[in-house]
Specification:
mainly alpha
């Protein structure tokens, strides 16, 4: 059951990252178009959005890992009382498999990066209406 909850949290985190990227593109459209009118290339604008999403993703990742560790400790302490009010036998201890956690974080990073790159790839394309193609150097 916990594995299903972890998979759901994983998918929700990826969905949140995709929605945050789309919202960032929509909400900051005026500022990004202003930067473009000042001479910023489409690839520079995509890079700006990607760096912002990296910061947001890392903040969410750090916050999620810390919240998970704290909640695991709290829940273990709260649940660690038997029906008679004594310590349960065997005792409850939070258990985290570092290899599994790192594999999950790596997978989350790779899939998250793919989502942000694919979402921003179509943004600020050269040759769109009102946008001249970049000159070949």
């Amino acid at each position: 059951m916990l594995a299903i909850a972890a998979a759901a949290a994983f998918l929700l985190a990826l969905l949140a990252l995709a929605l945050t990227t789309l919202a960032d593109l929509r909400d900051d459209r005026d500022a990004l178009l202003d930067l473009e009118s000042q001479g910023a290339s489409p690839s520079t604008l995509r890079r700006v959005v990607r760096i912002r999403q990296l910061v947001v993703g890392l903040a969410g990742l750090i916050g999620g890992v810390l919240a998970g560790a704290i909640l695991a400790g709290i829940v273990t302490d709260v649940v660690a009382v038997s029906a008679s009010g004594t310590a349960p036998v065997p005792p409850l201890e939070p258990l985290n498999d570092p290899g599994l956690v790192l594999a999950g974080l790596l997978l989350l990073g790779l899939v998250g990066t793919a989502i942000v790159v694919s979402t921003t790839r179509a943004a600020f394309r050269e040759g769109e209406a009102g946008r001249p193609k970049e000159a070949d150097a």
